[in-house]
Amino acid sequence: MSSLPRTTRSIESGKRKSILRSFSTLLVLVLFAIAGLTFCGSKATHLAYVTTGSGVVAFRIDNSKGTVTNVFTSPFLVGRATFGMVIQPSNRFAYVANQGTGTISRLDIDLTSGVLTERLPRTPAGLSPGPMILDSGGNFLFVADQGLNQVLVFSVSADGSLSQVSSAPLGSVPTSLTLSSTGFLFVPVPNLSALYIFSVSSGSLSQVCSSSGPVCLPFSLNNLGSSVAVDPAGQFLYVPNPSTDTVSGFTIGAAGTLTPVPGVAFAAGKSPAAADVDPSGKFVYVVNSGTTTISQYTIDSVGDLTAITGTAPAAGTNAGFITFDPDGKFVYVGNLGSASITQFTISSSGALSSTSNILQIGSAPRVLALTK
Fold first, then answer.
1. Which of 42, 67, 167, 359 lies deepest, with the highest CB count within 10 Å?
2. Does residue 325 register a pLDDT over 50?
3. Spatial distance between the Cα atoms of 142 and 61, rounded to a whole number of angstroms
4. Contact 242, 234 (CB under 8 A)
């Protein structure tokens, strides 16, 4: 039996109960705060995934400030030599091309934690699948098979499973895929100085011929770079020319044929590697792998380009690709030499300004994919 007086024991008991009530209240408040952060996080942030040769690195990006936070459970290991990656419009799942195994992995996305979970089995996709792209509705997946020199097309079911529906041969190695809103697929093959153009209908590919001769030939473009860019309306095509330090512009006809815009070629920086048009269709940007600069242009009604004056924005070394955030607020440039991705904002004039936010990858980034 305790030697404390009854009154003292009563006071001590009351204090313990008060402390327990305070602790319980604090715990409830903390749990509500965490739940609120999680709920708001899905609204205030989105996810960024970067493929490297050895896995997928994940980040969370603040929608307002662009600040970057590492998803601590990444990198996520998928197949061997991961390359292309795309995210289905619902943000429920993503696809990754495994060059080392000739397969495509389907990954479920946990939007709260950022964790990627693979759902087996993997889908066979030629010999060495690389770049990939989804149509705007997320109904068809296009894959550049760099081992067998072909384009593969898969239909996407409601549960995310893939079924191949068509394919098209190419003369040599495809280096990228660009899909226009008007239903044309552009596939550069720099080894042949050739640009393959296909019309797309329900996943079927029909090559657009460069002439009316007996053989359907791709479009011959000297100094063709590894990627091309199309404006959101599907009117204009822009092609970096790394050997001449220029970018060429073309109008896209109703049948997919190309006509050079006035001026034909526009000056860029040293060894332009990739180009992209912003979501508004007003500006085109070209990353120059021979320097750290980005060339910036405005687009007029006929597709002609005018350089945006001022100091050229700088990225990292050996820039290899450029990607726009889904809401168009941020622009990302992948730096193969710096093993990083630089973030920029776009002003009303189209000029890019670097933020202080950099995605540190640790090895050369191959593709950046973002949730909405």
1. 359
2. yes
3. 27
4. no
Question: How many Cβ atoms from other residues are within 10 Å of residue 327's Cβ?
Answer: 11
pLDDT per residue as tens digits for the range 29-41: 333 344 434 433 4
Domain boundaries, the chain: 12-37+46-370
| Average pLDDT of the residues of the chain | 90
Instruction: Tell me which fold the domain 12-37+46-370 belongs to.
Output: Methylamine Dehydrogenase; Chain H (2.130.10)
pLDDT of residue 14: 53
Q: Which residue, chain included where needed, has tokens 């095509």? A: 237
Integer Rg of the chain from CA: 25
Threshold 0.85, pTM exceeds = yes
Any bridge partners for residue 220, and if so which?
194
